[in-house]
Amino acid sequence: MPFINMKTTATLDIAKKDALSKELCIITRDCLGKGENWVMTGFEGNASLCFLGSTKDIAYVEVKCYGYPTKPQMNLMTRKVCTLLENELGIPKKRIYVAYFPTEDWGWNDSNF
């Protein structure tokens, strides 16, 4: 049940969003053990972001998930997400933030888990 939401200053067309979504689903499966069929992704390209006084090449990624991943799982996921965004969007790893929001309160299909 993870929701991976990304804001970036990069331009994202539909093909790029689809490719990133596919890779984020694989990363989530490999790092958090959450099945690819349960991952939702969201993207905001051309976002108004500023980091260290510059608006160039930035990404902010939120990982909202049901349950509480371990520090090693989050470390691995951060590493893989940063590598993905550097390779696919040209954003340097040092200009990417990844934030985690675990919860025990998650609803789906008319009820909560």
UniProtKB/TrEMBL annotation:
Keyword set, alphabetical order: Cytokine, Isomerase, Secreted
Pfam families, per the entry: MIF
Chief location of this protein within or outside the cell: secreted
Domain of life: Bacteria
InterPro entries: Macrophage_inhib_fac, Tautomerase/MIF_sf
Reactions it catalyzes: 3-phenylpyruvate = enol-phenylpyruvate; L-dopachrome = 5,6-dihydroxyindole-2-carboxylate
Compartments where located: Secreted
Listed EC numbers: 5.3.2.1, 5.3.3.12
Name of the protein in its database record: L-dopachrome isomerase
Organism: Roseburia amylophila
